[in-house]
Design a protein that fits this description.
The protein is mainly beta. The protein has twelve domains: 107 residues, Immunoglobulin-like (Sandwich); 85 residues, Immunoglobulin-like; 106 residues, Immunoglobulin-like; 63 residues, Immunoglobulin-like (Sandwich); 88 residues, Immunoglobulin-like (Sandwich), CATH 2.60.40; 74 residues, Immunoglobulin-like, CATH 2.60.40.1140; 72 residues, Immunoglobulin-like (Sandwich), CATH 2.60.40; 90 residues, Immunoglobulin-like (Sandwich), CATH 2.60.40; and more. The chain is 2% helix and 53% strand. It is built from two helices and 91 strands. The strands form 21 sheets. Strands 1, 4, 6, 8, 11, 13, 15 and 16 form an eight-stranded mixed sheet that branches. Strands 29, 30, 32, 33, 34, 35, 38 and 41 form an eight-stranded mixed sheet that branches. Strands 17, 18, 22, 24, 26 and 27 form a six-stranded mixed sheet that branches. The longest helix is centred in the N-terminal third of the chain and has 16 residues. The two termini are 82 Å apart. It is found in: Endoplasmic reticulum membrane. Keywords: Endoplasmic reticulum, Membrane, Signal, Transmembrane, Transmembrane helix. One of its GO terms (molecular function) is carbohydrate binding.
């Protein structure tokens, strides 16, 4: 065999082998604690936890290099955590692994490493006079002029900066509102954490609140702060108490503040503690009552805002009435306050009320021809004056007069419409007079006629009044109080027959329709009541210039013209289509029939011959229609046209195969006269028929896009349904050198994969393929390395060596499931299990020495390991024998009812001085089955429920609690453990020793120990001293 360029293949080969090997069962997790600086690795531990948080195993790192390793005895979910001294930072801090024997890092033999990031600076921000501090202070760490980190203090004021390298640091604290007495401290980090202590101090916090009167802010109220403790610092407020304040609290007054215009007050720099807060409010003439009169407040390590405001409890009010806002005053208006107290405005429009309580009051005003809205106002010591009050509406009056001979008389309805307002109506009296109250604005008013009056031709002038309501009433707007003829002529295409002309009221108007006969095309309708009408000729099979003519009769007679323009053809078609027509007079043209019903106006009289044209086929090819006896023309399509094309880059005999029940072929297709590379095809298809169109050619040298087209014929024509693009396809001709048959050739491109096989000469042809796609070609065969040559599709084959291992038990039977680990060569590593026949093959090996080790729990092997030398292309057979040295216990965990109990952890513990170091365990599966492996024949074991934190919490005990097990050179099978869950109920029974005559008056009560005042069960004894309480949850 020629020399192989191994370096060119090793990377791909070992990547392939690694992917085949990583899924095997590793029973350990290990790795390193790494650090870029010197640390004491011995202080760092690594712990293994179950997913429930139970510690499974822990170890310390090697002091020289930080290496650790932990054995894993059972598959499952684990968490590996690094356990360093407090403040040390690692990345990551923990790693979750689900050990399934295949896909996780431990099973793949990968290191799980933890990288040391640095030490920590710890400290605390405290409040003045306290050993604790506030949460939320921004603390930054600086090294020289460089900002390293920023954090915020936790609930007790403490903070931590990590990770940090050795050096000197400055801690600086800041807060947007709080005053810091000392805001920075310097600390040094060497080979351990730096402690900044409690050097940063907050000078105090704000205490704020508010005061209101009837919900409104109140200024000028004094608030005095009292405390029985000696304060660490004076708060930011005026020392002592205000003038006139009498201290009745028995506590020293620290200082006071005064509420501002918003009713707010604030004490600054108040140190944590318990205080008493008292309000004080007075003026030169009045002293007001403020509640609460005192309030205990507790200031902790934060600003305190009192949520409930202080309130001023328990003066003459006045106001003015004007015609309009800012307008003339109204004298003599009556004012009613809260429905009981009354006043009248003076010549200045003013009114007064004495002795008013703070709060909401109702005011009602009455005045001639004016209407006021009842008002609710807030009166308080700060606002005792009511703003000007003006009318809401003003009186407007109307009159309607009619002639004595009129057919209708009052009352009348007047419609009033205002800008941006809803329309209103006013009903006059029988004399036509009426008034209404209107809000200020611009209005229009008109008489709204009843249907009867409108039909009677009643008209009024003016049609409407335009007026404005401003600040005064309007005395009067007056409204003060014709039969016509409609005549016309009808123009006909032929001599006019006797026709009927109809006149009916326009839409929305009442009245009976009228009709007259038109002779020789003329007509006249008399005694028409003024109004709007619709005029029409009753001849539906004619076409009219205007079929219906709107006519309005108002104050003069009306003349109308009606003109026939043709004859109406009615078409009922299943599809939209075009019809050509000819007439007996030689006229011709086309008309379009829409799907459904279509009305067409034919311009002249006579016989018409209609011929459908277009992409639909109908039952009849010609239809006759006569204007003298017009009938409905019905068109029903039987087939529809479908067209398509093949577009090619060269001339070729293209065909289209049509598959629909039967198969037909269109073609060879003829090229289009306009484009020799376009081949158009057409066919007629019934509605609902499903067809598949497939392009092709006898030479099969072309590729088509799309390769086929399937559609179900709709109820219409389908034009240009598809254009097949035909191009020369791609064919790849390749060869394997030297000739190797059965090589799998894989061609991949654009997400598609094609496979081919080499023949006895090592040759293959791949195609036809899409020539617009870039393809990759690969070759493989077990036991060979294929080297792609420079010419695409050609490969050079190299045969590799292999080791085939067969594992048998003591009786010579195949032993499946044995883990064989082989490593060596050039960075080769593979771990695999033997198949059911006890064999495993290590293929595609490069020359070199390999180390082979068999592993399987409960077995010893001969040889226990073996060094194998492999030559180029060699096949080596190795036989290994396994002897069983330990056995398993198979069993089930079930409930008392026989149902499977899952997730029960059972352990087998060796007994006696020679075996007490042995312990194995297993968890029952979904069927309640478990298997405990690795029990030695020389030992007696106790099988029992495993105890421990977080283990078997759903199980109280088993029956039996312990079973003795001895694996006497064979597996122990069909063990059954009955699992009892914890009791969650109990019954209580008792007897009362007393004279029987007292029993009927006694009751028994059951209490919880932590709730001695609330019985949870009560029962009367009755006539018997024995009683039983209902079942209770434990």
């Amino acid at each position: 065999m020629p020399a192989i360029r191994w370096k060119e293949y090793l990377f791909l080969l070992f990547a392939f082998l690694w992917t085949r090997c990583v899924g095997n069962d590793f029973l350990g997790c290990g790795g390193y604690v790494r650090s870029d600086v010197d640390i004491n690795y011995a202080q760092v531990g690594v712990k293994l936890y179950t997913k429930q948080g139970n510690l499974k195993y822990e170890t310390e790192c090697a002091p020289n290099n930080g290496y650790y390793f932990m054995p894993i005895y059972d598959k499952g979910q684990y968490i590996i955590k690094v356990s360093p001294p407090s403040g040390w930072s690692f990345d990551p801090e923990e790693v979750s692994v689900k050990i399934d024997g295949e896909t996780d890092a431990c099973s793949q033999g990968k290191d799980i490493n933890f990288h040391f990031k640095g030490f920590a600076v710890i400290g605390k921000v405290v409040s003045i006079g306290s050993s604790s501090g506030p949460e939320g202070v921004t603390v930054s760490l600086h090294r020289g002029d460089a900002l390293i980190q920023t954090t915020q203090t936790s609930a007790d004021g403490s903070y931590v900066f990590t990770p940090l390298s050795s050096g000197k640091y400055t801690v600086v604290a800041a807060h947007p509102t709080w005053t810091l007495i000392k805001n920075e401290v310097t600390v040094e980090v060497a080979d351990e954490n730096g402690d900044a202590g409690a050097s940063i101090v907050v000078g105090g916090y704000s205490l704020s609140g508010s005061v209101i009167t009837d919900g409104q802010p109140t200024s000028g109220v004094n608030f005095i702060l009292h405390s029985q403790d000696t304060l660490a610092a004076q708060p930011a407020c005026t020392p002592g108490s205000p003038a006139g304040y009498e201290n009745t609290l028995g506590l020293p007054a620290v200082c006071y503040v005064v509420s501002d215009a918003t009713g707010s007050f604030t004490f600054g720099l108040v140190s944590p503690g318990v205080y008493m807060l008292a309000p004080y409010f007075h003026s030169s003439t009045t002293k007001y009552e403020v509640t609460p009169s005192k309030l205990e407040v507790v200031v902790s390590h934060n600003d305190l805002v009192l949520q409930q405001p202080f309130k001023v409890e328990g003066f003459s009010m006045s106001g003015r009435v004007t015609k309009s806002p800012g307008g003339e005053v109204i004298a003599g208006a009556k004012i009613l306050l809260d429905k009981v107290r009354a006043a009248v405005t003076d010549e200045n429009g003013l009114y007064y009320f004495e002795n008013i309580q703070s709060g909401k009051h109702k005011i009602k005003i009455t005045a001639d021809k004016l209407e006021f809205e009842e008002m609710t106002v807030n009166i308080s010591p700060k606002q005792p004056v009511v703003g000007d009050l003006s009318p809401l509406k003003y009186e407007v009056c109307f009159s309607v007069t009619v002639e004595k001979t009129a057919s209708h008389s009052g009352p009348w309805t007047i419609k009033i419409t205002g800008e941006g307002k809803a329309a209103q109506t006013l009903q006059t009296d029988v004399d036509g007079r009426g008034c209404i109250y209107l809000t200020p604005g611009s209005y229009s008013a008109s008489v709204k006629l009843s249907q009867a009056a409108d039909e009677a031709g009643m008209r009024f002038g003016p049609l409407e009044h335009l007026f404005s309501v401003t600040s005064d009433p309007i005395e009067e707007l007056a409204f003060s109080q014709f039969l016509g003829e409609i005549s016309g002529r009808i123009s006909c295409l032929e001599e006019c027959p006797t026709l009927t002309v109809s006149l009916q009221p326009a839409q929305g108007r009442s009245g009976a329709p009228r009709s007259v006969t038109a002779k020789d095309g003329t007509f006249s309708i008399t005694e028409v009541v003024p109004g709007s009408y619709l005029l029409s000729v009753q001849k539906d099979d004619w076409c009219w210039k205007l079929k219906t003519v709107p006519v309005t009769v108002n104050t003069q007679n009306v003349e109308v013209s009606l003109e026939q323009v043709g004859y109406q053809l009615t078409l009922a078609s299943s599809h939209e289509t075009t019809l050509s027509y000819t007439t007996t007079t030689g006229a011709s043209g086309t008309i379009v029939a829409q799907k459904g019903s279509t009305l067409v106006c034919m311009s002249g009289p006579g016989m018409y011959t209609l011929t459908p044209v277009g992409c639909h086929k109908f039952g009849s090819t010609q239809i006759n229609w006569n204007t003298s006896s017009p009938n409905l023309v019905t068109l029903s399509a039987t087939k529809h046209q479908l067209t398509g094309a093949v577009r090619a880059t060269e001339v070729a005999p293209f065909t289209v195969e049509v598959q629909s029940g039967s198969k037909t072929v269109l073609g060879p297709l003829n090229p289009s006269p306009e484009n020799p590379h376009l081949y158009v095809f057409e066919l007629w298809v019934r509605e609902g028929e499903t067809i598949t169109l497939t392009p092709g050619s006898p030479t099969n040298l072309y590729q088509y896009e799309p390769s086929s087209h399937t559609l179900t014929m709709p109820a219409d024509c389908v034009l240009n349904t598809v254009t097949f693009q035909a191009e020369r396809a791609l064919f790849i001709h390749g060869k394997i050198t030297p000739s190797v048959s059965g090589v799998t050739i894989t061609v991949e491109g654009n997400g598609k994969v094609y496979t081919y096989t080499s023949d006895a000469d090592g040759k293959y042809v791949a195609g036809p393929l899409d020539n617009s796609v870039q393809y990759s070609v690969s070759a493989e065969k077990r036991g060979y390395v294929m080297n792609a040559l420079s010419e695409k599709g050609h490969f050079e084959a190299y045969k590799l060596a292999e080791i085939v291992v067969e594992v048998k038990d003591e009786d010579g039977a195949p032993l499946p499931g044995v883990l064989l680990s082989m490593s060596g060569g050039k960075s080769y590593r593979q771990n695999s299990l033997t198949e059911n026949d006890g064999t495993i093959g290590f293929l595609s090996l490069t020359p070199g020495d390999y180390f082979l080790r068999p592993m399987m729990k409960e077995y010893m092997f001969d040889p226990a390991s073996k060094m194998v030398s492999v030559a180029e292309g060699a096949t080596i057979m190795i036989t290994i024998r396994g002897s069983r040295v330990a056995y398993s216990v198979y069993g089930h965990t079930v409930s008392l009812s026989g149902e499977a109990e899952t997730d029960v952890v059972v352990e087998a513990v060796g007994q006696g001085p020679e075996c007490d170091q042995y312990q194995e365990e297993a968890m029952s599966d979904a069927q309640g089955s478990f298997r405990i492996r690795g029990l030695y024949p020389k030992c007696q074991y106790e099988l029992r429920l495993k105890k421990g934190s977080g283990i078997n919490l759903h199980v109280q005990r088993t029956l039996p609690s312990v079973r003795s097990v001895h694996a006497d050179n064979k597996d122990v099978r069909d063990l059954k453990l009955i699992v009892l869950r914890p009791f969650n109920q109990m019954d209580v029974a008792a007897k009362v020793d007393t004279d029987p005559q007292h029993l009927s008056s006694l009751v028994a009560q059951l209490y919880r120990e932590d709730l001695p005042d609330s019985p949870i069960q009560t029962i009367k004894l009755g006539l018997h001293p024995y009683f039983m309480l209902p079942s209770n949850d434990c």
